[in-house]
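Next comes the chain:
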Amino acid sequence: MEVGGEVSPETAISRWKLGLSQQYQHMLDKTTPHVLRRWVGCLVVASIYVLRVYLVEGFYIVSYALGIYILNLLIGFLSPQVDPEVYDDGPTLPTSGSDEFRPFVRRLPEFKFWYSITKAFCIAFVMTFFSAFDVPVFWPILLFYWVVLFTLTMRRQISHMIKYKYVPFSFGKQRYTGKRASAESKSLPED
């Protein structure tokens, strides 16, 4: 509330928070087209976290939880938005070459995948500065359990991909080139 032309502290704080969140969102929006740079930045953040855990020689529970979270994100990234196993009456993925082309729509888009992983590494890095999160465990058992969990989960995901005949990656797929390709084909002389 404004009292005699002055702005109350609550209003000033809410304006400051709004301005800060708008600047943060603007920065995120500007990074959207720079896929390679974003992932290199994520790799740098992940490397800093791994180096911190290695040098401190602890926080294995935090790393294990981070690994489980990243595995969960990876499953969402590799899964279609509409799971053909669950929804029989909805739109289906093409199963033969004569079916209509429908692009693969992920349950978790690439940008949100990147953002969630980067944010998770940052949060885990901050957690390494608090000794309450450094629970003493025998880390080889956690690593073994995570590898087994990863293997079983990926086997199930790959069998799901094979069963419903979808590929969540776009390399090697035909791409529509637009007007340029049709203009070039018109300008070529016919034999």
Observations:
- The beta strands are 2-3, 6-7.
